[in-house]
Prior knowledge:
Layout: H1 15-24, H2 30-42, E1 60-61, E2 67-71, H3 79-82, H4 90-101, E3 122-126, H5 139-155, E4 161-165, H6 167-179, E5 196-197, E6 204-208, H7 213-216, H8 223-237
Parallel strand pairs: 2-3, 2-4, 4-6
Antiparallel strand pairs: 1-3, 5-6
Helix pairs in contact: 1-5, 4-8
Amino acid sequence: MPAARRTSLGPGASPLEALHARIARCRACPRLVAWREEIARVKRRAYREETYWGRPVPGFGDHRARIVLVGLAPAAHGANRTGRMFTGDRSGDFLYAALHRVGLASQPTSRTRDDGLVLRGVFITAAGRCAPPDNKPLPEELARCAPFLDRELALLTEARVLVGLGAIGWDAILDHLARTGVALPRPRPRFGHGAEAVLAGAPLVLGTYHPSQQNTQTGRLTPPMLEAILRRAVEVAG
Length: 238
């Protein structure tokens, strides 16, 4: 871990800030620790002068959010570089532009952790907190991260809508709800773009294709498609 990027907290830190500091210190998965730190050491040529974050990435956004987006995991040269979810890569460009269009983000781009971006009414997190090789975290790695998601969502007490960005985000939400005692129907609600799961005693769960380049460059996910999901979330969240 680069010493210059260690997290320090003052005495007035909120529970969410304290949780995020703990997330950033996690070294529970040897494979992921080795990968994220190797990426941070070798770097991509375009970013060779930058100091990579190279650690687990906490969630980001409005602490009073009524909408929570749950993605897959940090990108190797995106959030693993910048230290903020969906920041510094093409997926983030696509996502934050859509958030800006529906009034949930103060600007349409997200380049660095200190670029002035403010989220309004929305919080962004992920099932996995470390950049995984080939963007594929192992089931046991996601299981080790699950308590972080549980605690994060427990502290976001005003959340009314949970949006799964991709199938892994969707499944992470349903698994979280099951762990908190929400009864899931059988068969479980299936992921799909535009899927909705209405569960007693739980926020509405929405699904959208992940804003990965694989989806956005092929037209599987278009800006109007993502914007429609976000507008539905805003409508429900009130």
